[in-house]
Amino acid sequence: MATDPTRRTPGHLNQRDTEARLPRATRVKNKAPSPIQITAEQIIRDARGCQDRSIKPPPMSKIADLDELSEYRLGERNLFEEKIGRADCGVSAWVRYARWEEQGDLARSRSVYERALRVPAQHRDHTLWVKYAEFEMRNGSVSHARNVWDRAVALLPRVDQLWSKYAHMEELLGAYANARQVFDRWMAWHPGTNGWDAYIMFETRYGETERTRAIYERLVDEHPLPDAFKRYAEFETKYGEAERAHRLYQRAAELLVADGKDPEISPYEDAVRKNPLNYDVWFDYLAHEESVGSKDSIRDVYERAIANVPPAEEKRYWQRYIYLWINCALYEELDAQDMGRAREVYRECLKQIPHNKFTFSKVWIMAAQLEIRRKDLTAARQLLGNAIGMSPKGKIFKKYIEIEMRLGNVDRCRTLYQKYIEWSPANCYAWRKYAELERQLGETDRAWSIYELAVAQPALDMPEFLLKDLAEFDASAGLSGIDREINAPRIGKRNRPLPDEVSEAKHLKILQAAHRWKNSKA
Fold first, then answer.
1. Is residue 458 within 8 Å of residue 501, measured between CB atoms?
2. Torsion sign over Cα 254, 255, 258, 262
3. Number of helical (H) and strand (E) elements in the chain, helices listed first
4. What CA–CA distance (Å, rounded) separates 272 from 305?
5. Is 280 helix (H, G, I), strand (E, B) or coil?
6. Could you tell me the CA-to-CA distances from 243 to 254, 292, 302, 337, 438 in Å, in that order?
């Protein structure tokens, strides 16, 4: 006979009693928006208005004499005792109690910390020991603080924070010998790499190179890890011991091979093998080699790097690659002290660049500057002249003119400015600088003719600056009475190029323009 699950059985709960009964969903009959809308700001304002303003905070009590102070302290102390007497009391309650006692009675505060340490559940809590020691340090009780630290590290020698703070306290007090003794006691427990790193940083701060080297030796013996060997080698490299660093890398590789591990101290070789066109990795590899390697190994890496020519002749692919050549030339000149090899590097680099599609003015300029440092001015001029003939750029013209100006070769500067203007007749910078040169030399006729030729161009990139210079020139030369054809509307008009207009002004010579201006003035 089947039993009804809904029937109540004496002493037992049936299915209906154990079901989770949810309230019936309220059906909204009118879903239209209310004609009066209430904002959140109004709700908050109404809630504040409903607050009972008759309830006021308790008045502040003022302590008038020592009896009232003692009574206040007794009341607060009873509250703290009740809190720490609870079963769920934690370390934070004891610390708050001790901090409150610290305001007036250090002995009571110390007693609270000692009582907290006698609690079995808190005896091995390193946070409580740290708070206790910091309390003693904060109040200048150095002997008590050392006692607390000694007890803490004896009880919890595997907690690095206790040792670190103990040594830090001794260092702040200037007791470097005591701090070193603390570190030695710490290292006797064979801590992880963090403890060794702290000891190394301590000795490094005070310039103890030999002590630091001895600690590194103990570190690599205790933890023969690739990172430990690498940092040890970087330390030796920093102090000029490249051979020691190289031996360390070899030693690390032998240890790792003996353990059956991959002896990759640095991932450079593997990275360049996977992607030889990743020039950022080559830069890191070269920086590493320059810090620890010999000249032959560094040159070998440079040759391998520059052999990876970008596959496409587009400048955006060459912008990182070209700095491999530049860095190689700088290494040969500055580090290897071989200017001849640096010169060859620049020559090979210029041969590698497809100048018919793009060029790098930086390479031309740096190659010319190297020739000047070699006191070969003819070679520098030849390089810059080839640059102007093969692939002229504004930076090359500016640097070439700057060099000739420093040497005082005015005629060469004039020739260069003429070539600059012929290459870029719409460049107001070239016209203005050319005219400025003539004005500085006192050649007023030449300067005026240059301005006249400039405004006769069918297109100018920045005519407003040219007009400003022309106005300043007129004011300084006192030529305001002369009828001029140059004015702002004309420059604005000439700024828009005309396709069918062929200007012959750029083919005129400077002296012919000056003669025409003199005739118009007469």
1. yes
2. negative
3. 28, 0
4. 9
5. helix
6. 17, 8, 21, 20, 60
Classified as helix, coil or strand, 506 is helix
3-state secondary structure string, 228-286? HHHHHHHHHHHCCCHHHHHHHHHHHHHHHHHCCCCCCCCCHHHHHHHCCCCHHHHHHHH
Tokens at residue 42, please? Answer: 């109004």
Cα distance between residue 249 and residue 266, in whole Å: 10
pLDDT digits (tens, 9 = 90+) for 93-113: 898 999 988 887 899 999 999
Q: If you search the block for the tokens 């491999």, which residue do you land on?
A: 324
Q: Residue 241: which residues within 8 A CB-CB, separation 6 or more?
A: none
Task: State which amino acid sits at residue 461.
Answer: D
What is the SS3 assignment for 299? helix
Which of 80-94, 371-385, 389-403 is the least confident region?
80-94
Sign (positive/negative) of CA torsion 9, 10, 14, 19?
Answer: positive
Closest CA to 246 of 289, 300, 292: 292
The tokens of 511 are what?
Answer: 């002296």
**Distance linking the first and last C-alpha atoms of the chain:** 138
Cα(237)–Cα(231) distance, integer angstroms = 10
The label of the residue with tokens 């207009």 reads: 501
Mean pLDDT of 441-470: 83
Contact call for residues 322 and 314 (beta carbons, < 8 A)? no
Phi, psi of 71 (to 5 degrees): -65, -40
How far apart are the C-alpha atoms of 120 and 129, rounded to whole Å?
Answer: 14
C-alpha 495 chain-centroid distance: 44
At position 511, the amino acid (one-letter code) is L
How far apart CA 311 and CA 373 sit, in angstroms, is 34
Question: How far, in Å, CA of 390 to CA of 458, rounded?
Answer: 26
At 225-272, the pLDDT tens digits run 888 888 888 888 888 887 888 788 878 877 766 655 555 555 677 788
C-alpha 9 chain-centroid distance: 77
Tokens of 75: 């009341």
Q: Which amino acid is at 495?
A: N
Distance CA 509, CA 479 (A): 23
